Amino acid sequence: MVLDMERSLKIGIVCYPTYGGSGIVATELGKNLAKLGHEVHFIAYAIPYRLNQYYDNVFYHEVKILDYPLFEYPPYSLALASKMAEIAHYQKLDLIHVHYAIPHAASAFLAREMTKTYHPLKIITTLHGTDITLVGRDPSFMEVTRFSIEQSDAVTAVSRYLRDKTIEFFSVERPIDVIYNFIEEHEDQQKRCNELRQRLAPDGELIISHLSNFRPVKRVEDIIEIAFKVKKQLPVKVMMIGDGPDRSKAEMLARDLGIADDICFLGKQEDIYLLLASSDLFLMPSRLESFGLAALEAMSCGVPCITSNTGGLPELVKDGISGFTAEVGDVESMAGYALKILKDDDLRKKMSRSSREYAFQNFHVDKIIPQYLELYRKILS
Ligand code: GMT
């Protein structure tokens, strides 16, 4: 078969639709591929969180699962494989790109096996983080994770760190391409930011932000401790964006430390660029982070970051240039760095410029999407 390398592709994208980095990357990738004229079919159990309006060339297929009393654990992976095979066949997909290995890569393998006699299909698996570092390594998933990575036609990881860990943990032989998370240019919303600042920090306090899914790996209580230390020297407000299992613990800690009035828990939000751009400093004290999409989004708004120096974060945050990094759990140092940035207007402005420049020079959508397209063309050739 001669493949026209310039023709537009029909691409299936499988992801978790919820509030999490892998779903966001998958959705933004699909939207950008559609803008370039490719036909994109999202397959998920709910509409992906950032697929919130009509987009040309974008289709959404919901995975339904039969609720039957015999199933203590409804077999989602099978329903997904079945839907993938159906969509691949009837929509004539060239490839399916799955985000987060478990169970998506295994379901994709099954779909490819099912359709191989009447519709050959290629599979790309993108590893995002906890699918390798936490969940995939669990003995209950270890073998299937290794198998489905090996069986993919191409595999990408969102940082060098994650690629190296995948090879180390699973001894996989399939080559893994590193393709980083990406950001797009967004409107400068100075007027709206000023209004929001007025509401959040009416006395002109500086604002610290955090955005995550509040899972234990994010160490959100560290943020409250850092804020407590900073507040001893400087009036600040803290904006906690997102929601998840550790939110209540963080709220309780803020109350115990007597700083609850200055910590604003906003819950899940849509307009995250407005919120991030309204802050002066972003904190990500995670125990582990394969890349750190939320920090990249903050940097793209010109907000310096203080992060732990773990996982792929040092590939993103340049210590002393676009922010600072410290050991996991070292809230003392993180508070010290926060004060350094917040007390020094010149340093903050310099770091703000460097953050934005570094983010767009290295992680601009126009630099990253072609890397995925090149990989698609390679496996289809
Ligand atoms: O735990 C999360 O933050 C969600 C998780 C996911 O897979 O949904 O995020 C991971 O993927 C992001 C996008 O590639 C990365 O930027 C995050 O660093 C990564 N999270 C962790 O490694 C903890």
Q: Could you walk me through the main structural features you see in this protein, from its secondary elements to its overall organization?
A:
The chain is 43% helix and 17% strand. It is α/β, with parallel strands linked by helices and 381 residues long. The protein folds into two domains: 10-182 and 365-380, Glycogen Phosphorylase B (Rossmann fold, 3-Layer(aba) Sandwich), CATH 3.40.50; 190-363, Rossmann fold. A seven-stranded parallel sheet has the order 3-2-1-4-5-6-7, sandwiched between helices. Helix 11 (293-300) links the parallel strand 11 (281-284) and strand 12. The longest helix is centred in the last third of the chain and has 19 residues, at 345-363. The model has no long low-confidence stretch (mean pLDDT 96). The chain binds ligand GMT. Ligand GMT binds at residues 20-23, 25, 100, 128-130, 158, 181, 213, 215, 217, 288-293.
- Ligand types: ligand GMT
CATH class of the largest domain: Alpha Beta
First and last CA, distance: 9 Å
Q: Show unreliable segments.
A: none
Instruction: Tell me the structural class.
Output: alpha/beta
* DSSP summary: helix tally: 14
Largest sheet, strands/sense/barrel? 7 strands, parallel
H and E string: EHEEHEHEHHEHEHEHEHEHEHEEHHH
Mean pLDDT: 96
Order the strands across the largest sheet as they lie in space: 3-2-1-4-5-6-7
Q: Strand portion, in percent?
A: 15-25%
Assign the CATH architecture of the largest domain: 3-Layer(aba) Sandwich
Number of strands: 13
Helix content: 40-55%
Shape: globular
Question: What is Rg?
Answer: 22 Å
| The CATH homologous superfamily of the largest domain | Glycogen Phosphorylase B
Q: How many structural domains can be distinguished in the coordinates?
A: 2
